[in-house]
Every structure is written in structure tokens, then in C-alpha cells.
Amino acid sequence: MDGWVLAFQLGQKWIDNVAQVFGGLAVGAFGFIIFRNLVLALAGPFMSLLSERVENRLRGQASATFNMSAFLSDMARGVRIALRLIVRELFFTILLFLLGLIPGLAILTTPMIFIVQAYYAGAGNLDFALERHFRVRDSVRFVRQNRGLAIGNGAVYLLLLLSVVGFLVALPLATIAATVETVKKIKQ
What we know:
mainly alpha
């Protein structure tokens, strides 16, 4: 009888340890997602200015002067877009995470989670350029039609966030790259 009790106690400890590891990873991952989106929303007005300056240079136009009402409008739009993106991103990430708990599916869901993260990160970066040309609904349509661009931009952005130096330059570089490509696509 003692052997059975010992086996169950060892099994319980193993399950507790696995749950603790998965729980810690899940909290860390979701904290990173929320932090990344919060930084995107708060830096939005500044990245919008950067995007506008890059676009003006590409088009050979003079940079516009600072406008407080446009700044506040960009901030409001950025928060609205960030909330929309984070809700969808968390939904698909949680769904894929739960599917990954099924034995054998983790090998598929892990890269799919990265692709989802890259898509939504890229969508946020693309919106800095899109906000001057489209309403929110049209921006969403543009991103859907250019999924590859969003995923590519977001993937590089996420990989840059993993390094100390990249963390400092990831958002401005992703914004510049997204603006250059968006201007090309809009011209077509």
C-alpha cells in the first residue's frame, strides 16, 4: 500500500512542477505581449511623427509642423488600434497555446504562435503609416491584403526585441521599414 501512495505523491509532485513551469511561461509570455502592446500604444504618437517624416522624405515633401490636435488624435487612434490588436492577438495566442497542450501538436502550434505574434506586431507597425491614408476599417483591410508584409515586419521586430541593443532600436526600425513598404504599396 505504501508503494501506491509513494507513486501518487511522486506523480503529484511531477504534475505540480510541470504546472508551475507552464504557468510561469504563460504568465511571462502574456506579460511580454501586454508590455509590447503597451509600448506600441504609448510610443504611437512619436512613431507616427517618425513615419510621417519618413514618408515626406520619400515623397520629396517638406515635413509638416507639430500639431497638438493631430498628436492627440494619433494617440487616441493608436490606443483604439492597440486594444483591438491585443484582444485578437491574445485570443489566438491562448487558443494555440491550449491546442499545444495536446500531445504532438506543440510542434505545430509553437511556430504558429510566433506567426500570430509577428502578424499583430507588424499590423501595429504598419498602422503608423496607414493612419494618414485610411480609416481604421480600411487600415485593417490593407493589413489583411498584405499579411506577408505584416508578418515579415513583425517577425524582424520581435527578433530584435530579444536582444538588448535591438530592444532600443526595434520600434523605430520597424516603423521606418513599415512606412517605406506601405508607401510603395499605396503608390501601386
